[in-house]
Amino acid sequence: MSKRSRLFIVLLVLVVCGVFLYPTFEWYFMVPQAQKELAAGSKQQIQAYARGQAAKAVGELKSLVAASGSDAVPEKYAYLIPIAKEHYKLDGRDLPSKWTVSTLLKGFNTEEAAFSAIEGYYRTKLFDLKDEGGSVLQLGLDLSGGMSILLEADLDSLEKRLGHPPTVDDQNQAVQRAMEILNNRIDKFGVTEPQIRQQGTNQINIDIPGAADPERVNSFLMGKGSLSFHIVDQELSQKVVQYFQQNPTKAYDDQGHVITPDFVPAGYVVRGFYEKDSYGIDQLRRWVVVREEVGLDGSHIQNATVGNHPVTGKPVINFTLDQEGGEIFFQLTSTNQKGTLAILMDDKVKSMAVINEPIRERVQMSGFDRKEANDLALVLRTAAMPVDLKINNQQAVGASLGEDSVRQGLKAITLSFILVIIFMLLYYQVAGIVSDIALILNLVIMVSILSAFNLTLTLTSIAGLILTVGMAVDANVIIFERIKEEYRLGKTPEASAKAGFRKAFWTIMDANITTFIAALVLSQLGSGPVQGFANTLAVGIVSSMFTALFVSRLIFDFGIEQLKVKKLSIGWRIR
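^ thats the sequence. predicted structure below, dont judge the formating
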């Protein structure tokens, strides 16, 4: 490969690293901490904040108009000008020659329209920040804290599934199996390095690093049994809707559960039909009466994929049922043609459709946003929970290491890195500069890859980084010593460099490949901090081989050929 091609590859790698690193750099150094905390809140908290800011902004704009409507629009409200322009155009009005607070408010037909526009601005801003926070290099539980969840196995549900009171062994087996499923789900949801451990005989403790979204965390706790199919009674549904409109206080009991009116016959229950609002929060649209008997249980779902509705383009979930489920569903839809089928999740009606013809194996459900559809499809593809799990406690936890410990650890790491650079510079002279450049680039590549794959950085991961730096130096030492041997034989600088890199190649490859295999095994079999260390080590090995064998070689070739080097500066005793 020519030097020009190698230079192009190195520059391309640097550009890609910059792209990978920018979101992490922006998140940790440019986004205010207060904004991060808001973005880490629940959807309800974001909704309350956005509406509060909108109410405050509308009040302030009205005060500015009352004081002096000819004043220029404050910079913090400049984002409203493009929206106001669109309203002027839609109404067929001429655009104002100068944007003042008065002309800005006139761009909104009502106060409610201005409120909605401002609320939408803050809502979009915080949701974008929430997405950004989930796609950067995360700090582990020991560095930044995270979320701790205590789950408890519902022994009553386990007894129903087993058909007899569960023994201690039954409880342990169910909890162990639930831990395996949770670990698999959490990993696929993109939450890295969770710590899952059994507590007592029927409890599971989960520690998740970083600002984990509570709603997204709750989504992977769902089991297959939470989804069920029921037949709707439309006539009873209309009566219930009218009854609750006339008696709104009789819809819920003290615990917030829906009360089924007395006129609804036995075998039927009242459920709410919910749709997502602009915040992704379930909003009650109407009341629905369904048969209490489950027509088909979600445990018969064999596969679930996400697609788009051919007409609306909205996300839909396509289910494939197993053979038994297909027969049950065929009988259900055959005997209820022209009736309405409701799909319930956690006792909420998420989707309804008229049964036009019998259906055997393939079912489609809508009523979800894209993220919720992907999450639910993933849960349905995994194994069913052997026991229902209840959340006993869910809270944020602080870093397990104090700020002083973290600061001292980072100081030690920085100092060791600087000392390695100085040593290589003093011992190998000009060649040491080449090694230091490769070393710094190696660190940049490693951090950018960790950031790109949204991995979690813990103190053990940082230890992996430092170990990799030492291994990268080791590769350069082997190469330089080989070049020294060739140079002592009287070869030219160019011939010595080529021979040194060629003879050191397989020595370096053999050592790194064996370590890489060990890192892969640790990554697959380990968990928590061990897995973080293994991931960092594996990434570092690939990066160090690239910088030592590719980047260093490019710099050597350029220096020798382009600068016409007559004598190598690769050690104090080499003349």
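The longest strand covers residues 282-291.
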